[in-house]
Design goal:
about 200 residues; alpha+beta; Alpha-Beta Plaits; two-stranded antiparallel ribbon; 7 helices; about 40% helix
Length: about 200
């Protein structure tokens, strides 16, 4: 059976605009009701909320796949996913954005782009993106960059198909929402939640 994990102490201490990851986890568990406008208006909180919601969704997928009948899954994979939420939620670098016909200085934060990339796993059943890195001089317009993501795949989902679908969705999202010159998207499968003995 897959259990709701307790947050490691190191993650409980992480701060998201005045909130801890544990508080954000409780907010997700409440269905985000009543609505907390402070949390909902914070970019780092929203990225963390989306990651936590996706983690809950994958845990539910595992339950529906009758994981209960098997030995307990390695709970460490949940800890590894949780450990990537704080660094992926930080603003990071400022990525320039050109807006035709507009004057002013426009940009996306690296954290927002990482959130965009991590959201791709919602379109691929059984996949959960953990760490996401944008490698290269992303703050320099037209400079080539590589995107590297680490992903966990649940048992029963073809790894090759999942990786291909993730790469396609990440590329689509980046092309639609950013002006990054993406030269490559590297996907490392770092966890496979398998049935005991297989």
């Amino acid at each position: 059976m897959t259990h709701e994990p307790e947050l490691p102490d190191s993650l409980e201490a992480e701060d998201f605009d005045g909130y801890t990851l544990e508080e954000l986890s409780d907010y997700v568990d409440s269905g985000r009701v009543p609505r907390n406008t402070r949390i909902e208006s914070s970019p780092s909180c929203r990225i963390a909320l989306e990651a936590l919601a996706r983690l809950r969704e994958v845990q539910s997928e595992m339950r529906r796949a009758d994981v209960e009948a098997e030995p307990p899954a390695d709970e460490l994979w949940v800890d590894r996913i949780l450990a990537q939420i704080p660094p992926n939620s930080r603003p990071g670098r400022r990525i320039p954005l050109e807006v035709a016909g507009a004057t002013g200085d426009f940009a996306l934060t690296e954290g927002a782009i990482r959130g965009l990339v991590r959201g791709a796993d919602a379109t691929v059943p059984g996949a959960l993106i953990g760490r996401c890195r944008i490698l290269g001089d992303a703050e320099v317009p037209s400079a080539p960059v590589h995107v590297n993501v680490e992903v966990s795949i649940c048992y029963g989902y073809p790894i090759g198909e999942a990786v291909h679908a993730l790469r396609e969705e990440i590329a689509r999202r980046l092309a639609v929402h950013t002006q990054l010159r993406v030269e490559g998207i590297d996907i490392d499968v770092v966890d496979l939640q398998s049935r005991g003995g297989e």
